[in-house]
Amino acid sequence: MEQLYYNLSEDQFTNERRILLQILAALFYLGSVYVLIAKPVFGHRNMPQILAIPPFFIGLVITGFTIWGRLQRKDLFFLVDYGKIEFRFGIFRAKRHSFKWSKISSLVMPLTQRKIQLNLNDGSSFVINLAYFKQQKSTSIKNHIYKLAIEKEIETTVVKMLPASEFHYENIMKKIRG
């Protein structure tokens, strides 16, 4: 089976979104400048100049967010191939995760959620949350992982929803297995 690779760097924080945020920051800066010059130039006596501080700081926050997005959003990807599942994505602290197929004992795939739970051979589990992606990408990733799991003869359980906690899941699986 072919490998599935998504480069998420462009999807998470596109150039169009950066430009829109920069325009929004510029509008806040212009609002701040207008408040500063309203009293001396336009003669608005009821407008204190201290009101220029909030739009200026909002503009600074938006500018900081766009700079952070430009610097931080490199090397985000999702890869599913014959040897491993590897990905790096996230909102604030993106971490790289890699799971070899040989270390995965079973998969739990919910029908109504965009998540996949990997149960590993050492008894731990990891939930891959695909809610950050568009519906088409998350469906494609789930289908690809499902087909590879069937091909590698990994136990795959399809459930309606993943439980809220891992402890709850273990109790349900004990009841199912007997």
Characterize the structure shown.
The protein has 178 residues and is an alpha+beta fold. The protein has two domains: 66 residues; 101 residues, Pleckstrin-homology domain (PH domain)/Phosphotyrosine-binding domain (PTB) (PH-domain like, Roll). It has a four-stranded antiparallel sheet with strand order 1-2-3-4. Strands 7-6-5-8 form a four-stranded mixed sheet, covered by helices on one side. The radius of gyration is 24 Å and the shape is elongated. The relative contact order is 0.13. The mean pLDDT is 82.
What would the keywords be for this entry?
alpha+beta, single chain, about 180 residues, four-stranded mixed β-sheet, elongated, 2 domains, four-stranded antiparallel β-sheet, about 45% helix, PH-domain like
Listing every helix as H and every strand as E from the N terminus to the C terminus, the arrangement reads: EHHHEEEEEEHEH
Number of strands: 8
Distance between the termini: 35 Å
CATH superfamily of the largest domain: Pleckstrin-homology domain (PH domain)/Phosphotyrosine-binding domain (PTB)
CATH names the topology of the largest domain as PH-domain like
Low-confidence stretches: none
What's the level 1 CATH class of the largest domain?
Mainly Beta
Rg, rounded, reads 24 Å
User: If classified by CATH, what would the architecture of the largest domain be?
Assistant: Roll
Decide which structural class fits the backbone: alpha+beta
Oligomer: single chain
The average pLDDT is 82
Tell me the strand percentage band.
Answer: 15-25%
The main β sheet shows up as:
4 strands, antiparallel
Helix amount, in percent?
40-55%
- Domain module tally: 2
The helix tally amounts to 5
Q: Give the strand order, joined by hyphens, for the main sheet.
A: 1-2-3-4
Overall spatial form: elongated
